[in-house]
Amino acid sequence: MPTRATHRPSPSNPPKAQRMVSNAATSDSPATKPEASGMLKASACLRRAHVHTQAISPVKGGLNTLIGALLSTIDNVMMPEFTFSTLVIPSSGPSDNDIIYGSGEKTNPLANVFSFDLPSDMEDPEASESFRHFPNTYRSSHPVFSFTGLGLDIALINHPADDPYAPIRVLRKMNGWVLLAGAKPSHNFSIHLAEKITGRKQFVRWALTSEGIREIPNYPGCPDGFHKLNYYLQEELHSVQVGGETWQAINIDTLINVACALLKDDPFALLCNEINCPRCNLVRESIKAQYARQWQSEH
Ligand SMILES: [Zn+2]
Q1: Does residue 273 fall inside a structural domain?
Q2: How far is the CA of 200 from the centre of ligand 1 (A)?
Q3: In 39, 112, 249, 267, which residue has its Cα 20 to 30 A from 118's Cα atom?
C-alpha cells in the first residue's frame, strides 16, 4: 500500500499563504540571488512552481537547500508531478485523437500503475521529486497530472481523472501565482486551462490506476506555441535573470484572463508552428469544422 504524505491546514495552523518573499526564491535552482528576491517580492503568496534544474549553477547543499530556501519564504507551494508512464493505448476509441489505437501491444505491459509513490517522469523532474519527499507535503490523485503541494491541500484533495485542471482552478480563486524557474512557457500547464475554458479541442487518454484503467478526458493539446502569449502579457509577466536562466512569475488569474481573451479573439492562437504537429493540426481542423457549422446554420 503506498504511503501518502499529508498536511492538513487547520484553523489553529493556517497556511502562511500571505507572506511575501524576502529572499531566495523558487523551486529549483540557485535561489538566493538579490534580483530573484526582488522579482518575488513583486509577486506574492501562493504559487505553483515549475523548476528546471538544467543549466543552473551548482548550489552548496544541493537541491534540498534550494527547496528549503523556497519553503522558508513562500510557505505554500505546488509543483507538477506528472506521470506519463501510466498511459496505455486501447484497441479503439474516439477519432481525431492523435493516437494509433491498438499500437500498445508492446508498451502497455510496461506502463506503471499510478500510486502516490510513483516518481514523476517529466523532463527534468529533480526539483519536484525532491519537493515530494519533503515532510508534510500532499500529492493529488490524478493518474497523469498529479501535483505535490505544501499547505495547499484545498487545491489538491479533489483532483478527479476527468479534470486535470482542478488544482489550477482552485489556485486561480486563491489569487495564486505561477513561477517558471528556468522552465519554458510550454511547461506552463495553467495555459491549458484557458484552452479548456474557451472550448478548444481536448483529447482523451487512458491511464493505469489501482482501480483499473481510467479514461482521462480533457487531456491537453500541444503547448509548444505557448511562448506566443508572452507578447500579450507585457508588464504582467515579471522576469529576471538568475544564474543564466530566465525566471518568470505571473498571477494565475491574470494569465488565464489574458489567454482566454486571446483565444476568443483568435481561436488559432497559441498553436505551434510545426507544420506536421498532429495535435495542433487536429485543433485547427476542429476550429474550421466549427466555422463551417456556424456558417451553415446562418445560411
Ligand atoms: Zn503543436
Answers
A1: yes
A2: 13
A3: 249
Provide CB contacts within 8 A for 133, sequence distance 6+. Answer: none
> Is residue 8 in some structural domain?
no
pLDDT along the chain (299 residues), means of 10: 41 30 27 32 44 51 69 84 97 97 97 97 86 92 96 95 96 92 91 98 98 97 97 91 83 97 97 97 97 87
Q: How far is the CA of 282 from the centre of ligand 1 (A)?
A: 10
Q: Per residue in 109-161, pLDDT tens?
A: 999 999 999 999 998 888 888 889 988 999 999 999 999 999 999 999 999 99
What's the domain count of the chain? Answer: 1
Nearest residue to 178 via CA among 7, 73, 44, 83: 44
Q: Is residue 82 part of a domain?
A: yes
As a whole number of angstroms, the distance between CA 56 and CA 228 comes to 25
